[in-house]
Design brief:
The protein is α/β, with parallel strands linked by helices. Among the domains are: about 120 residues, Urease, subunit C, domain 1 (Roll); about 120 residues, Diaminopimelate Epimerase, Chain A, domain 1 (Roll), CATH 3.10.310. Helices cover about 30% and strands about 20% of the residues. It is built from 19 helices and 24 strands. Strands 8-15-16-17-18-19-20-21 form an eight-stranded parallel sheet. A six-stranded mixed sheet has the order 3-2-7-22-23-24, with helices on one face. A six-stranded mixed sheet has the order 9-10-11-12-14-13, with helices on both faces. Helix 9 links the parallel strand 16 and strand 17.
């Protein structure tokens, strides 16, 4: 074991007595880490690192526990997650009755006219998997507008009060890229709105106050600290940017934020960066996020072939794809201006369309280190996997979705298309850079659940104990890299963070068990004992 770091100054914090997985191939393992001024001063043998202990040094003996680089989540809706923590929670409602009861209980606590939002419901948990209807909740919410979304964020249920405020009637046409679900007998809206149709309600929901935004961010930061998340690559609405800036100015940020704003307004970010700069290592504007399609659970992910359980549809193009050709124009212009583009694609046709656009833009704009990303890269045709590698496109994936969707995906698209669904192994073997995250609050923020999902592929219903399409499993080390150094690469920060090396920021986590040594199926029960960001302990398990 070699020692790294010639620095000989007093450390502020020293971690001793652990197994340090550095992520640095030159020195994969270490016994101790010294930290000062928010950065790593030394990594190596305990006796060498002890030389940096002075009278003011805090020494943390981790008693043989595993130390990792801080987790980098490649895809969050972070403020939405904070609001979810503070709103009605329908994620584990097991039947329509429980769904309605929780909304009714929430309505009792609110004054008339105050909206109920949040939700994260999953109708696939319910007997028969019916989509909810406004009639389920209307009796309890006559004067309380409700709009609660499915956990994938691509459809939601509005009650009658919300539909009235939005002006949605049986005569309202479906917007491009969206669907107003209607009763087949009466033609009346059922309350379910998919993708672009959701904006009809979103535009009438009052904007949260600055105080409400700040409280949501604080709740989200506490959640991130609890799970060892030290950096996020966020899907950032423009209304969220001032919230992050306020927290940064007050010194309250305990995660590093790489913010990606909506691609339709890409010029706005270009102008802001030209005026004020992209930011710093705590808060940085990181390019743009666009959409090509919707989600599998909402049958709005775009496929070449129809859905097996809904043969009348092959999914939807997102509204950002209209008018035809606009997405390519925006990506090409943003790329010429030097910005990174990250595009959401779920279905196999959506992924192929994104790769077509990326390939054209690369050819037209010429070579540069652009690191195009596909967010989710969920369902791929076999021939598009080597194409991703050839184009240098990053697969920004969220492995928990595999063990969640895996309960019902075959019913929706058939077994053959599922063979290259969440194709972690095939992508890595082809040479694609794969990074991991959560899509929180669509899925739990906990990276250890993501690692568990990627390594075991055991679906949540317990029906695949050996893994759902087990040939797509990856190793624990590959999954950890996808949550650390490969995540740093995806935001052009691999020289700054993502591994435990001298000079890098001191973002680390200490785990309760060694996930490299225990049976993979036990990883889901492992807990974070300490989270360290910028050399400061921001979370310690009780």
């Amino acid at each position: 074991m070699t020692d790294v770091g010639p620095v000989r100054e007093e450390a502020e914090l020293v971690l001793l007595g652990g197994r340090v997985w550095t992520g640095d191939p030159r020195q994969p393992q270490a016994e101790a880490v010294a930290i000062g001024d928010g950065r790593i001063l030394a990594v190596g043998r305990a006796e060498s690192v002890r030389a940096l202990i002075g009278p003011r040094t805090r020494v943390l003996n981790v008693h043989g526990r595993l130390v990792l680089p801080g987790f980098i989540d490649n895809h969050t809706h972070f403020l939405d997650g904070g609001f979810h923590l503070l709103s009605v929670d329908l994620r584990d409602a097991r039947d329509p009755q429980e769904f309605a009861r929780r909304i009714a209980e929430r309505a009792k606590t609110l004054p008339p006219g105050r909206w109920i939002t949040g939700g994260q419901w999953d109708h696939e948990l319910w007997p028969g998997a019916p989509l909810p209807r406004k009639e389920w909740i209307d009796p309890y919410t006559p004067n309380t507008p409700v709009f609660v979304t499915r956990l994938d964020g691509h459809m939601g249920l509005a009650n009658s009060a919300a539909l009235r405020q939005a002006g949605i009637t049986r005569q309202t046409p479906d917007p491009p890229g969206g669907t107003i679900v209607r009763d087949p007998q009466t033609g009346e809206p059922t309350g379910i709105l998919k993708d672009a149709a959701m904006s009809l309600v979103y535009r009438v929901i009052p904007e949260p106050s600055d105080h409400e935004y700040d409280e949501a961010l604080r709740a989200a930061l506490r959640e991130a600290a609890r799970f060892g998340v030290t950096s996020i690559q966020d899907i950032t609405e423009w209304a969220h940017w001032p919230v992050y800036r306020r927290a940064h100015q007050r010194g309250e940020l305990t995660v590093r934020v790489y913010a990606r704003t909506p691609i339709p307004e890409w010029e706005r970010q270009r102008e802001l960066v030209a005026r004020e700069g992209a930011g710093d290592q705590w808060l940085r504007l990181g390019g743009f996020k666009g959409f090509v399609d919707g989600s599998l659970g909402s049958t709005t992910a775009l496929f070449f072939e129809p859905y097996a359980d809904a043969p009348q549809t092959s999914g939807l193009l997102h509204s950002q794809m209209f008018p035809e050709g606009i997405m390519k124009q925006r990506i090409a212009a943003a790329d010429r201006a030097g910005f990174q583009c990250s595009i959401h694609a779920i279905g196999d046709k959506a992924n192929a369309l994104v790769l077509d656009i990326f390939e054209e833009v690369i050819r037209e704009n010429g070579p540069r280190d652009r690191r195009f990303r596909i967010e989710h890269a969920q369902h791929l045709r076999p021939q598009d996997i080597p194409r991703m590698a050839r184009l240098g496109v990053i697969a920004s994936m969220q492995p928990y979705h595999a063990i969640d969707d895996g309960r019902w995906a075959e019913k929706r698209i058939g077994r053959e298309r599922c063979k290259t669904t969440y194709a972690f192994r095939s992508l890595l073997d082809a040479g694609v850079r794969v990074t991991f995250g959560s899509d929180w609050p669509v899925a739990p923020l906990n990276p250890l659940l993501g690692i568990y999902a990627a390594v075991t592929r055991r679906t949540l219903d317990g029906k695949n104990p050996n893994g759902w399409f087990p040939e797509q499993k990856i190793t624990v080390e590959e999954a950890v890299r996808a949550y650390t150094i490969w995540g740093a690469y995806a935001e052009f920060a691999e020289t700054v963070k993502g591994s435990i090396e001298v000079g890098k920021v001191a973002d680390l986590v200490v785990l309760s068990r060694d996930i490299f040594a225990i049976p993979p199926e036990e990883i889901a029960q492992v807990e974070v004992l300490y989270t360290i960001v910028g050399g400061r302990i921001i979370y310690a398990a009780r």
